[in-house]
User: Fold these one by one.
Assistant:
Number 1:
Amino acid sequence: MPLELPLWELASFDASREQMRNLLGLPHFTETDSTRTAGGEEDGWAYILPSGQRVLIILAVPHRKVRLIADPPKLDALLAMLGLEPDDPRLNRYAQPFLLD
C-alpha cells in the first residue's frame, strides 16, 4: 500500500481487528512480516477523502492499536469518516502531528 510522503500521524485509539473490519471492511493491505512491524500483523486501509485529504489507517493487530495518519494533518474529517466524535474518550490526540518520513 504505497503512499507518498509527507504523512502525519495524528491520533490513535484501541480497537480489535473485528471492530475495524466491521467498520471499514477488509483491509486494503495486511503486513504479515513482523520484521516490518512493531511485532505481529498490521492491517491497513488507505483513502482519499472528497476534500483530497489522503488518509491511512493502520491497526497493529496484536496490540489492538489503531494509528490515524493523514495529509494534510487535519483530524476532523478523518474522525467523521470513522464515526468518532472529536471528544471521544477512546481517542488519543497527539499534541503535535508526528511527521512520518
Note: The chain has a mean pLDDT of 93.
Number 2:
Amino acid sequence: MKKSIAILLALSVLITSAFVACKKQDDSDEDTAISEQGIEDANDEYGFEVVPATDKDGKEVTDKNGKTVTTEVAVKYEVDKKGKTVAVVLNSKGDPVTKKNGKSVTVKTDVKLTTKAKTKKSKKKKTTTKKASKSTKATTVPTKKGDKTTEPEITTKKNTERPPKTSDKGERVVFSEEDQQIVKSMLEVPYLYNTSYENADGVPIEAAAHAALWMLQREGISTKNYAAGTVVIDLFKYFGQTVINFKTKVNEEGKTENIVYKSQTDTFSVSDYEPETHSVTIDNIQSMGYGNYYKVEGTAKLAEGGKKKVIAIIQRNRLDNSLGFSIKALNWK
C-alpha cells in the first residue's frame, strides 16, 4: 500500500505530541529565514529517523504482540552548541516543528555530523513494524549456476559510504519480480533518459524536475499546488540525497513548464503530469558488495523510436517503503 508523504508527515506531527503540545511559530524571524532558505541548502543534511508511533494522547502504539510500532519522520540534522548532532523534526513545509517554549522538537539519531557542510551517516536503524519489514524485504531466487541472491540487508564491508560509479563492477544477483518492477518504474520516469550523472556530480535539475512530477503524481493527491517541503522531501526519497538549489533553479533549468516554483508562496504549481516516454527492460543486476548498492543494466525503448542502454546505481533504502530504492547515478547511451 502506498504511503503518501502527506500521511508520513502527518504522523511526524502526531508523534511530536509525545514530547509536548507543539505548534509552529510562523511569525519568528528564525523560522522565516529557514523557510526562505529551503530544505535544499547544500550546507544542511536531511533524512528520516525511525521513532515510536504515538496516539493522540502521546502514548506509544503497540501491535497485538505488545511490540512498539514505529514510523519514520522527516528531520534536519544539526550540530548543537555542545557539538552533538541532533535531528530536528520537520513539518509538511520542511520547517522545524517547535514546542510551546519555541524550542525545536528533536528525536534520537545515530547520525554524526563532522561539520555543517560535510557529514557521515551511520547505518539506519531497523523498523520493527511487520508492515515495513514486509515491504522492504528483497525476495530473490537464482536463475542459473553462479548467480548469487540478494539479501534483505547487506552490511557495509568497507569503511566507506561512497556510492559506486556506473563503471564499477559487482557480482550478479537476481531481484524478485516485485523489486524489478519497482526499479523498472523508477527508470521509466518521463524524459529521465535526457540526463546522465554520477553521484559525486550531484543531481541535474532537469532530472529532478521530471522525477518530482512523477513522485507527486504517485501521491494521488487532488491538488495542483504543493508545499515546497513536500516536493523537496519527495526528491530526497527518489535520489537518496538533497537536490541542491532545486527551488531556485527549476524554473530556468528544469526544461519543463509542467512544474513551476512560486517564491511568493513557497509552493510548486503543477500544470500537468507527463505521459510515458519510454519503457525499460532490465538486463542485469549486480550487487556492489556494500551499503546496499546495486548496479542495474537495462534497455530503454523510446516512444519516439530507437533505443538507449542505461546503467544505474541504485541503493535500497527505507525513506519510502513503497518505493524501496533510490537512484544514485545514471548513464544513458
Note: Helices lie at 5-15, 29-37, 130-136, 177-187, 205-219, 228-239, 246-253.
Number 3:
Amino acid sequence: MFEDLLAKQEMNIARLSAISGVGYNYIFKIVKNQTDFGRCGIETAKKIGDALGMDLNQIYEYKESYFRRRIYYQDQSDWDCEMFGELNAELNKLFLIGIEYHFSKGPISRSTEVCKQSDLEISCIRFDRLSEETRCIMVAILNQQKRLTDFLKVYGNLAGLAEQKPLKEKLSLTETPYNLFPSYKAMNIEY
C-alpha cells in the first residue's frame, strides 16, 4: 500500500521496519496489501506514520484514497500495476472471507453478516464479464490458498476459472515485485 511513499522517500521495507520498530514481516504485509492497515493498532499506525513523516490523519486519509473501490469487471485497458495491485488486494480480501466462511474448521473470526455479504458478492460475480487479468488473479489467489477446486464447488458461477490459462504477457501487481508466490508465477503474474 505504501510502496509509492517508500519510493519517494528512497526507503525500502527493511528500512521502514528498522525506523518504525515494527516487525519486517508485518511491514511487508502492509506494504504488499496482504493485511488491512486499518486493523493494525493505533500505536503501530503511529510508529509507521512517524517513520514516514506523516501524522495519523494523513496516513488514514492516504489509506482511504488508496483503497478507492474498483469493480473487478471494469475496463482495465489503461490500468497500471498499482491499480492491478488494488484489484488483487480487493479480491484477496473478498475470497479469503469466502474461504473462511465455507471451509474454516474452527470459529469464524469475522461477523456472520460480513461473511454473508461477501458470500453473496462472490456468488453474483459474472464470469463472462471478467478480464483475462482478473481471472488469472483470481486463480492465483485461490491456488495460493490451495482452495481452487473446493471454492469452485461452492461458487459455480466461477467454474470457468478451472480452465483458465496463464496470461500471455507478464502482469505486474507492483513496481518492485518479489515473486514469492508460485501460484502467481504460474499465471504469469509478478507480485
Note: The chain has a mean pLDDT of 86.
